[in-house]
Amino acid sequence: MGGELLQTLINADNEYNNDDFEDLRRNALVALMSSFPLEVSKLVIAELRKTRDYSLGRRLVVMTSIAYAASELTELPKPEREDIIEGHIQRWGDPKNARRWGSTLHKVKMVKAVNRFSPCATVYFYGLLSGCDLQKILREEDGLEATQLLTTLAVIIEAAGESVMELDRMATDLMDVCLVLTPIRPPNARKALMFAIACAVRVLNDYRGNDIMGEFLVNAAENDPDENVRDLAIGVCSILAQRHDDYLNNLFKNV
Questions:
Q1: What is the rounded CA–CA span in Å between residue 144 and residue 155?
Q2: How many distinct structural domains can be found in the chain?
């Protein structure tokens, strides 16, 4: 029953040109994902794997619904009609105040250990990751798939909670994806990329970056034409700088 309903929702067409058709479809998918989280997560990933000829539009609908369901099942901000990335960034404070933003981002507690999304976090995360072609995504001119993939993977990590034993591994794998996608150019994709990096860094408390990531972040902070991307990059740089300072201070204490 659940599988048939899922297929119907994904494959439904806007035959009567309803203005709010996509919102209604997404809300129905989110309701289904939220009612039976683990069971439906397996159905969703199985459906995406079984039907690889889904159009990009339908895949984007599914990924968006997963991100919304993750927020619905946890204490994260409900996206409603706002930018889901903005909703999460607001929890971290104002990125324009780099030092305070970095400190806040570093100290913000993860979603509480017990939440309804935790059991299906890895199912969605690795299900989406295994079905994407990063090189193909890099070649896209509009960056739509990159934007939604990065946003959804990042929100999954935000929503997973510390009870998910694979959380560090998920964050590490997300950083690897981000490294591959650093050449991406469309503005929305760059913003999603920086958001994903921030989410991964937030989980990986011992991560201090590397030469490639450091150069990318500094370049983005100084030169990206999008103010939001620059602010996010500055915030992440401030976190990594603080971690380097803490590491050196601890090192000298032990000398």
A1: 17
A2: 1
Does residue 91 lie in a domain region? no
User: Is 92 a member of any domain?
Assistant: no
Domain containing residue 21: 1-76+114-253
194 in any annotated domain: yes
219 with 190: CB under 8 angstroms?
Answer: no
Q: Judge whether 117 and 70 are in contact, CB under 8 Å.
A: yes
- Say if residues 146 and 181 touch (Cβ distance below 8 Å): yes
This prediction has a pTM of 0.89
Per-residue pLDDT of the chain (255 residues; tens, 9 = 90+): 578 999 999 989 888 888 999 999 999 999 999 999 999 999 999 988 876 667 888 999 999 999 999 988 987 766 655 577 777 766 665 655 555 555 555 544 544 445 899 999 999 999 999 989 999 999 999 999 999 999 999 999 999 988 789 999 999 999 999 999 999 999 999 999 999 999 999 899 899 888 999 999 999 999 999 998 998 999 999 999 988 888 888 887 766
The values of phi and psi at residue 53, to 5°, are: -95, 15
How buried is residue 46: exposed, middle or buried, by Cβ count under 10 Å (0-12/13-18/19+)? Answer: middle
Residue 251 to residues 103, 141, 223, 238, 254: CA-CA distances in angstroms? 21, 46, 33, 20, 5
Residue 232: partners with Cβ closer than 8 Å, 6 or more residues away:
89, 95, 191, 194, 195, 197, 198, 220
Identify whether 178 is part of a domain.
yes
CB count within 10 Å of CB 201 equals 26
Nearest 10 degrees: Cα torsion 75, 78, 79, 84: -10
User: Which CATH number belongs to the domain containing residue 54 in this structure?
Assistant: 1.25.40.720
